Amino acid sequence: MKSLIIILLYFVAAGVSVQVNDHHQDRISRDVRNQSQVHVMQDDRHHTEYYGYERPCPDAEDIAPCVCTYYNESNTMALDCSAVESEEQLKQIFKADFPLKNFREFYFQGNNNLKVLEAGIFNGISFEIINIGNNDLEVIESQALDSCYEVVTDIFLKANRITFFPFDELSHFSKLSNFDIDSN
User: Fold this and answer.
1) What would the CATH number be for the domain defined by 55-184?
2) Rounded (5°) CA angle 127-132-137
3) pTM listed for this prediction
4) What is the pLDDT of residues 59-112, one digit of tens each?
5) Which one-letter DSSP state was computed for residue 58?
6) Per-domain residue ranges for the chain?
7) With 0-12 CB in 10 A as exposed, 13-18 as middle and 19+ as buried, what is 62?
8) How far apart are CA 119 and CA 81, in angstroms?
9) What is the C-alpha separation between 70 and 64, in angstroms, rounded?
10) pLDDT for 2-45, tens place per residue?
11) CA–CA separation, 58 and 100 (whole Å)
């Protein structure tokens, strides 16, 4: 066991892929802050485990009124932007310094302020689950969800006022298994 840890530490320093067993491959990398991230491939799903981060979420004041939650037990993060007041405010939030760019879930619930989800709005931040419901959202522009093409598994858009969604982009979502746009 001790030799395995030493070998893994070597690979962390080198930033290379490590085949741990037949069903599990980890790619260990370092970010700009020289912090380790282990990108875990398991059952054809990508999960990022965060090591060495004292603060995986952005500073709360930089993303307010959005709230970032880090779940230590599952090593995942969620971002709730339900209290956003405008498209411009949401755009500014995603310009903040996000130490990590991979989130498990994005929530946007019960909001009457946002009408349009603009192209490129997430600014490189990706989400595995997008849960946008019970809002007055009317338009999801082409490429609004582009940073999620390779990771999103579930998109829930139930009970909004959506009149436009770029359905032609659905083929770009390589891991999408659930899509719900009911009650629009």
Assistant:
1) 3.80.10.10
2) 125
3) 0.73
4) 999 999 999 999 988 889 999 999 999 999 999 999 999 999 999 999 999 999
5) P
6) 1-54, 55-184
7) middle
8) 17
9) 16
10) 444 444 444 444 444 333 333 333 333 334 433 334 444 444 55
11) 8
